[in-house]
Amino acid sequence: MKIDIQTIKKDTHFIDFIDSRDLRESTIKHYAKRLTTFCNLIGKTPTELIEEAEETLSTYLAGLNLNAKDKDHIKKWWSKPEMIKTEYGFVPVYDIEHPKGLKI
Known about the structure:
The protein is mostly helical. It has helices at about 5-10, 10-20, 25-40, 45-60, 70-80, and strands spanning about 80-85, 90-95. The protein has one domain (about 5-95).
């Protein structure tokens, strides 16, 4: 399936990314063009790529025997960080759960 630039520009994750930054229109067009090329190489939309990455990451983290063993909890926790605004843009802040019995 060929992914066109309009599909990229309508993708919710791309829109969220663009909205979280103060970008010029020329930069947005450049990002959309480059992301379209990348997505066509991989054969997935940005949303499909992110969903696959979240699933892979949450499965991996769930296998590490952390406190939160429910992979859906980790997936939600990882994809919904608290965002703080700095002079450089938005920065995600995560609550980190440490493994039980961590020996330092």
